Amino acid sequence: MALLISNDVTNRVLKIPEAVTAMENVLAQYAKGNAAFQPRTDVWSPTAVGGDYYRYGHLLGAMAEPPTLALRFKSDILTWTDYNGVKTEEWHCIRPGTYCGFIILIDTSTGEVIALLNDGILQHVRVGATAGVGAKYLARKDASVLGVLGSGGMARTYTEAIHAVRPLQLLKVYSPTPKNREAFAAEMSDKLGVETKVCSSIAEALTDVDMVATCTDSRIPIYTSDLMKLHRPGAFIVRCRYDEMDDATFEAVDRIFVNAQEGYTELAIGSAEDRARRPMDDAYRRRYKKTEYPFLADVIIGRTPGRRSDDETIFYHNTSSGLQFAAVGRLVYERAKEAKLGTAIPSDWFLQDIRN
């Protein structure tokens, strides 16, 4: 039997510390050649109704232990808007407020489809958990003050995951909407038992912090290299989106790490005029360009040195991969099965007697 696992079930069974451990495990497997992934592939089409463009995107990843393959796909109608002078990307499926993101999970010891999962909760946790692994290996051992830019789902999971590996004494947050940053601060204070400060500017949120997490949907830099002087020595900086950082930051930090090598494949339908309607072409290619930075995966297994001194400022370029969905998706499946949650689907539904 396979399980259909909703966001509600995922939210009930998925614990951030366990997700951090699962991500650490799959990255170690990747470094040893026991896990692999396919870079992101997007298919663009100018056929959208009620939006600027249609985009399908998928990530694929597999690991040996437990033997799992995950395919995560999204089906989006995109719109681009200006919010307080910042270019942002919005999306929906069918109508605003509804979204289509799904994960197909396969047990590679038998080839069986074992789960179909909504990706809403899981996709936030898998990125946050990876940030937590980065903080475990790259932040100062005594780091205890975190500055967060953003107040959405990613900001929550980044904060919880970092707190799981570097217990926080103070959390500072800024986002442009006062009610959102205040709600975030109240929730994190209650959930983590950590002193939380609501800030009225980016600079205030990043002053005297040990760690920085940028978790916004901005498509232009909101973190610039001049902000580095506000942090304590030896800061750890992690981003959610490539576009949030200016190029000067990459030059100004002492060292940069990535999860693993990224890449990007684009398939597009439409004329040159159609493609000109897309304002984010360069941003997408920039976000997924290949780099030569050392891998966090190699730090985990001791192949590459991590932090070498308390004075190093380290930027962790938290890249995305299908490995995250294999690791955290399998964790959710196992926990849902133990709790007898989810909707059972006969495995025969995925089988046929005609050879393909």
Note the main attributes of this structure.
356 residues; alpha/beta; ornithine cyclodeaminase, domain 1; Rossmann fold; nine-stranded mixed β-sheet; seven-stranded parallel β-sheet; 16 strands; globular
In summary, what is this structure?
By secondary structure, the chain is α/β, with parallel strands linked by helices.
Quickly give the CATH architecture of the largest domain.
2-Layer Sandwich
Alpha carbon gyration radius: 20 Å
CATH class of the largest domain: Alpha Beta
Shape: globular
CATH superfamily of the largest domain: ornithine cyclodeaminase, domain 1
Note the gap between the termini.
Answer: 22 Å
User: Would you tell me the structural class of the helices and strands?
Assistant: alpha/beta
The tally of structural domains comes to 2
Architecture overview:
The chain is of the alpha/beta class. It has two domains: 2-123 and 323-350, ornithine cyclodeaminase, domain 1; 139-260 and 294-321, 3-Layer(aba) Sandwich (Rossmann fold). The protein is 32% helix and 29% strand. The protein contains eleven helices and 16 strands. The strands form two sheets. Strands 1, 2, 3, 4, 5, 6, 7, 14 and 16 form a nine-stranded mixed sheet that branches. A seven-stranded parallel sheet has the order 10-9-8-11-12-15-13. Strand 8, helix 4 (153-165) and strand 9 form a beta-alpha-beta unit. The model has no long low-confidence stretch (mean pLDDT 93).
Question: What's the SSE blueprint?
Answer:
Elements: E1 2-5, H1 7-13, H2 16-31, E2 35-45, E3 53-63, E4 68-83, E5 86-92, E6 100-107, E7 112-118, H3 120-138, E8 145-149, H4 153-165, E9 170-174, H5 178-192, E10 195-198, H6 202-206, E11 211-214, E12 236-239, H7 247-252, E13 255-258, E14 264-268, H8 272-276, H9 281-287, H10 296-300, E15 314-317, H11 322-338, E16 343-345
Parallel strand pairs: 1-7, 2-14, 8-9, 8-11, 9-10, 11-12, 12-15, 13-15
Antiparallel strand pairs: 1-16, 2-3, 3-4, 4-5, 4-6, 6-7
Helix pairs in contact: 2-3, 2-4, 2-11, 3-4, 3-11
